[in-house]
Design brief:
There is one protein chain. The protein has 144 residues and is an alpha+beta fold. 40% of the residues lie in helices and 17% in strands. It is built from five helices and six strands, in the order βαβββαββααα. It has helices spanning 13-24, 65-74, 99-106, 111-123, 130-143, and strands spanning 6-9, 29-32, 44-47, 50-53, 85-88, 91-94. Strands 1-2 form a two-stranded parallel ribbon. Strand 3 and strand 4 (50-53) form a beta hairpin. The radius of gyration is 24 Å and the shape is elongated.
Length: 144
């Protein structure tokens, strides 16, 4: 019969981190997972030298130096800045919206100009926007 100090269900971020810490503390752990790999949803496969995030993108960030030092003592992290873009009518815009986005869209240069433009946009009738066409088409399609 085996003797374990801890039985851990799931080898995701928490389970794997806990098991690592306990092993360093001299404890014996048994990890049970239904998947054939460790890492849970943050599992990566290396394909032709590229890390593929099998279950979707995962980005780790913290402003806590102790947490940052701890995770970097376990695994090397790549420097990454998430900067998604939206393509609207063949023009690219930063997401989430920021002053660069507002400058691209409206030519405004200050937060107060952006706020004023947003308020102006909110007052426009819905029927003049692309959204009203989408809502009409969606309603029409669902009624058929």
């Amino acid at each position: 019969m085996y003797k374990y100090d801890f039985i851990i269900v799931g080898s995701g971020l928490y389970g794997a981190t806990f098991a690592h810490a306990m092993k360093k503390a001299g404890k014996k752990c048994l990890i049970l997972d239904r998947r054939p790999h460790t890492g849970g949803n943050i599992y990566c496969e290396e394909i032709e030298g590229i890390n593929i995030h099998k279950y979707g993108a995962h980005i780790f960030h913290t402003s806590n130096k102790n947490v940052w030092d701890f995770v970097n003592s376990i695994v090397e992290f790549n420097r990454y800045t998430n900067s998604p873009l939206a393509n609207y009518k063949d023009q690219y815009f930063n997401l989430p919206f920021n002053m660069n986005t507002f400058y691209q869209m409206w030519g405004v240069k200050t937060p107060s100009e952006a706020r004023a433009k947003i308020e102006e946009q909110k007052k426009l009738p819905l029927q003049n926007s692309d959204l009203s066409v989408w809502k009409t088409q969606k309603t029409w399609k669902t009624k058929q």
